[in-house]
Amino acid sequence: MNLASAELLLGRLERARRLLHRAWRWQARGADLTAARILTLRLVIAWLQKQSTSLYLGQLKSILQADSLSNVADVHTYWSIDSVVRGLRDRLSPQHLALLKTLVAVLNGSQNESSLEECEEYRLQPPAPLSVTECPRSGLSLE
Asked: Which among 26, 4, 24 has a CA at the least distance from the CA of 128?
């Protein structure tokens, strides 16, 4: 995921997208912290590429509405992604930047999932199944 973050900052969106697609397929652990981080970066890339975000946002909602967010991969619980967020601030709309910051805060445990309801895009998005790996417009792939 760190390599995908670097590719994202360098503007190599397609390479970052492919790395995250591979990471999503490999993680196969379900609704955990690593999956939520992968989906957050996939969401950012979709915003930047002006593609549909409904699958990634819906999958994030499915994960975040669970009773608790497990840490199956035993990753550090604080996601140090501040430099990535700063690097994206001129490339994302104010609404998307606010949603990204709130998502990171929720994943880092400094805000509750309910704080995401203030973001209209999140509030209106229904949960989506984690078994789908790609948005239908870019080629539906079911595991």
From this structure: 24
* 142 bridge partner residues: 132
Render pLDDT for 41-72 as a digit per residue (tens, 0 to 9). 999 999 999 999 999 999 999 999 876 776 66
d(CA 8, CA 1): 10
- By three-state DSSP, how is residue 128 classified? coil
Q: The tokens 């379900």 sit on which residue?
A: 30
Nearest to 70 by CA among 41, 39, 106, 30: 30
Q: Which residues of 15-41 are buried (b: 16+ CB within 10 A; e: fewer)?
A: ebbebbbebbeebeeebbbbbbbbbbb
Residue 41, token pair as written in the block:
């970066």
**Distance (Å, whole) CA 48 – CA 27:** 24
Enter the tokens of residue 90: 């001129």
Enter the pTM of the model.
Answer: 0.87
Instruction: Indicate the length of the chain as a whole number.
Output: 143
Torsions phi, psi for 141 (to 5 deg)? -130, 120
State which amino acid sits at residue 59.
Q
Name which of 104, 49, 53 is nearest 82 in CA terms.
104
Main-chain phi, psi angles of 142, to 5 degrees: -105, 140
